[in-house]
Amino acid sequence: MFYPKTPFLSNSLLEAEILKVNSAAVSQLLEWLCRTPRVTTYRVNRLRTNVDTHKAQLEEHLARRYPCGQQAPRIYGLADLPEVLCIAPLEAELALSVPDPTLKEVIVDTSCGAALLRGAHIYAPGVMAMESNTQLQECVNVYADLAGKCKRGMTTRYENSEKVYVGVGKVLMQRYQLYNDKDEAPTGIAVEMQSNVSGVPSLGDLSSADALLQNLPSIVCVRVLDPQPGERILDMCAAPGNKTTHIAELMGDQGCVVALDNSASRVRGMLGKLGNNYRSIQAHVFDSTKAVAASSDSSCPAAPPFPCASFDRILLDAPCSGLGNRPQLLCSIKQAKILKSYPNIQRRLLAQAVQLLRPGGILVYSTCTVTEAECESIVTWALRKYPELRLLDATPRYGGPGLPLPDLETAQSKLLQRFGPGNDLDTVGFFIAKFQKD
What we know:
- This protein has 11 helices and 18 strands.
- It has helices spanning 12-19, 26-34, 51-65, 110-117, 175-178, 216-225, 242-250, 264-274, 336-356, 376-385, 410-415; strands spanning 40-44, 75-78, 81-87, 104-108, 122-123, 129-130, 139-145, 163-171, 189-196, 211-213, 232-235, 256-261, 281-285, 311-317, 357-367, 389-392, 417-419, 430-437.
């Protein structure tokens, strides 16, 4: 069965650009990026419920999903992260890894295929092709199209050596519902996944106001920030707001969390999710590269731009290449110049953050990527540019140390936190650095 060993299947030049510094671990990193993190994590909103109550609800849901003596996946917590519940992968015998040749096939794109490997179902817009005469409730083999050559609405079996088997699903919508000439696009779950090759339970997204499906490093990132009740905190690139709400919850919703994002649509989406549930969060559509006010007025306005030294803590979860998101069946970045554009915006944002941070304040810089240029190299640049910054240990620690660079001392590298191949916890690629301003 075909499965990619690199997310840069047809772009070896970009692969070389990304990995030229980290050449010693190329093969390990590439294959790791293609593989699926097997543990599913939820962050419980302890302002609304308690972890034991939500755990019982999840166990009840899993008991319905795996009846008749099937062993449901285990749910467990993490000592340093009391708001987290983890769902373990299924036992090996429950994970189907070889396609049944008697079943019809459904084709999805690589983005949808990656989501299915993380436990999602297939929504109507995600069905690229479905064979003719596929019936409701019929089980089908699901494949992701790495070659990108499948025509939408195709009626015959799609034959291509670069299609990746994802798992088995049950059909909830037929072809006439998916591919019609009506103005209104179909919505809802079209294929409910029954199993997948990753072993991650196919549960869909069980997020609610009480708990949110969230990658573990993103949760750790806010714990490293360590927000305290009554503080004034800035989330510089906030949408969709998952880390913003976590900050507010750790503060007991007491204090002020200013959330900025330069996308009006993303801020609207964030506000829709926030509703009236958080008194402490103030969201603004604003470009954080211009967040420092030109005036030296010492007052602290409610809306951006802000005077220097306005915040006790700042989270800069910077725009990045996103190369740590797993599984990556096929990288969406096509040109090296796009990859090279990210460090520039990251440095501009960090320069604003340093000015906005009060003396003694904490700045956390994070990315969901694996390139040195967007991670350790940004740290070395910041330490050279701003002598008032010093690194602190990025705890709690669930990842490994930063990569060694010529301008980064070994002791400094150990203060950083990098999630990648070889970590005890198999999760997405992520990077966290914690600074204090003297």
